[in-house]
Design a protein that fits this description.
CATH topology: Cathepsin D, subunit A, domain 1
Number of strands: 10
Strand content: over 45%
Structural class: mainly beta
Number of helices: 0
Oligomer: single chain
CATH architecture: Beta Barrel
Number of domains: 1
């Protein structure tokens, strides 16, 4: 099980350790992809460029960006996932990566729990 917190702003966040460093990771239930990763993680996740993707953002804006297959360490497993890279310091986790997980967000208690389902 992975546990995290809900920020005062209502953002569900967990902390992941990748390449010997702690990274904040936002659980974004409005993002149906796998991952958005910081540029600083590019070399740590064995990238393979697979093309370009057009993404629709919340405000109706559309952007085109490069997409990669990465080897992403998560919950004691390594997942092959699609990822884009941004010049930011946090990870964005989409719902596609969580298909085998039960996600519980308790806004009152400000807690997050991810449990892998077999």
């Amino acid at each position: 099980m992975i546990v995290g917190t809900v920020s005062a702003d209502g953002v569900p966040t967990i902390t992941l350790v990748i390449a010997g460093r702690e990274w904040p990771a936002v659980i974004d239930t409005g993002f149906n992809g796998d991952l958005e990763l910081p540029e600083d993680l590019r070399e740590a996740v064995s990238t393979r460029h697979v093309g370009r993707v057009t993404s629709a953002l919340a405000g109706g804006q559309r952007i085109e960006e490069d997409v990669y297959i990465v080897e992403f360490p998560f919950d004691g497993h390594t997942f092959h996932a699609e990822a884009t890279f941004v010049p930011d310091a946090s990870i964005l986790i989409g719902t596609h990566l969580l298909q085998q997980y039960h996600l519980q967000i308790d806004f009152v208690e400000r807690s997050v729990q991810l449990t892998r389902k077999s």
